[in-house]
Design a protein that fits this description.
mainly beta; Monooxygenase; Neuraminidase; 2 domains; six-stranded mixed β-sheet; five-stranded antiparallel β-sheet; 5 helices; 27 strands; about 40% strand; globular; disordered N terminus
């Protein structure tokens, strides 16, 4: 604040402009400055302005599973990492979120995280059944959902109606119908929906939401092989992609490749080595492209592989080093870069088990939350 001035003497437009440039973790502290600042930060105009500013500076987002919950960090996201011989980024601590047991983690979707199996309080672990939880990692706001029989769930977003829905699907051989829960309507309850093809998924299965459609790998019950399940968030209808190519690959990660459904496939080649391939369009699996070769001394976390809006494939590599690295690969230019991430030193749990760390690209901080 300018010496000799009070917040009342500073134009509200100027205060709004300054606050909209702050990170989300600073907004909560700013609410305590005065009633005027609180009223400014609660305005829909400010929330929209903040989101617009954040969208222009997407960040890398790191989620670390700790013994006492989750720790979220963010760092700048490099736009042209291949132009430098080496690159070092610093991840700033963002927020700590309580989450006990081993909560299922779907990932980021339009600024929200969906945990499908979580306890918020450690004192409840012996008396309370875990429930699904929606969390805004930018603000720490969260909301517990009805149990829904604790099946695996996915968070989908309809960009036309601006509406979030949670899809709950059977695990393994459970004989149960899929369920849907619509958020933000005031009626938080599960509804059974019809699915023309009986299928199940495993705990480790991830999904991806692209332009209002949820995609995930499902295991058919009748013939015992996998298909790509497509769930339209708006109409709540199912479709399926039954490509023979995907039936024989045990390690497959569906991705959003520049607005199209793509896939990352891992193949064991020899002596413990692994080859990673990129498919830019699942409807054209024969056009798979060699992405990267991993030796037996490294491990790639397939749950953390993602693609930026500009087409860079990004993933975490675990090796014998005590440093954290994010790998960037551009399949068009055929260039790659290893980016060192600093700032994890205080998170001892991350060093103890690096597979507890997940990275997401193009993270945009958003102050909105489901009411």
């Amino acid at each position: 604040m300018i010496r000799g001035q009070t917040s009342d003497s500073i134009p509200i437009d100027l205060i709004t402009e300054i606050l909209s440039r702050l990170p989300a973790k600073s907004i909560a502290r700013c609410r305590c400055v005065s009633k005027l600042w609180t009223s400014i930060l609660d305005r829909p105009y400010f929330t929209k302005l903040f989101l617009t500013r954040s969208s222009a500076r997407p960040r890398l987002f790191f989620a670390i599973k700790r013994a006492d919950g989750w720790c979220f960090l963010t760092s700048p996201q490099p736009h042209s990492p291949y132009d430098k011989s080496s690159l070092v980024l610093v991840a700033d601590f963002h927020i700590k979120f309580p989450g006990y047991m081993w909560p299922g983690f779907f990932g980021l979707n339009s600024g929200l995280i969906y945990f499908y199996h979580m306890l918020i309080s450690e004192k409840d672990k012996d008396t309370v059944v875990p429930v699904p939880v929606i969390c805004n990692p930018s603000t720490g706001q969260h909301m517990s959902l009805p149990n829904g029989n604790m099946k695996k769930g996915f968070l989908g977003f309809d960009p036309i109606e601006k509406q979030f829905k949670v899809l709950s699907v059977r695990l393994y051989n459970e004989n149960q119908s899929p369920q849907v829960l619509t958020l933000g309507t005031g009626n938080v309850s599960w509804r059974k929906i019809h699915c023309p093809l009986k299928h199940y998924i495993s705990y480790c299965e991830d999904g991806v939401c692209i332009n209002g459609v949820l995609y995930y790998l499902g295991h058919r019950v009748d013939v015992w092989y996998r298909v790509i399940v497509c769930f339209d968030v708006s109409s709540e209808k199912f479709n399926f992609i039954d490509e023979e190519f995907f039936r024989r690959w045990p390690r497959t990660k569906l991705i959003n490749y520049m607005g199209k459904l793509g896939a990352i496939i891992y193949e064991y080649v020899a002596f413990g080595d692994t080859m990673m391939y990129l498919i830019k369009d699942v409807m054209k699996p024969e056009q798979r492209q060699h992405v990267y070769f991993f030796g037996k001394d490294t491990f790639v976390d397939d749950s953390s592989v993602s693609v930026t809006s500009t087409g860079d494939v990004v993933w975490l590599i675990y090796d014998t080093s005590k440093l954290f690295y994010v790998f960037y690969f551009n399949p068009i230019r055929n260039t790659h870069q290893r980016v060192e991430i600093q700032g994890f030193e205080v998170n001892h749990d991350a060093f103890a088990n690096r597979r507890n760390v997940r990275v997401f690209v193009d993270h945009v901080e958003d102050l909105n939350f489901i009411k």
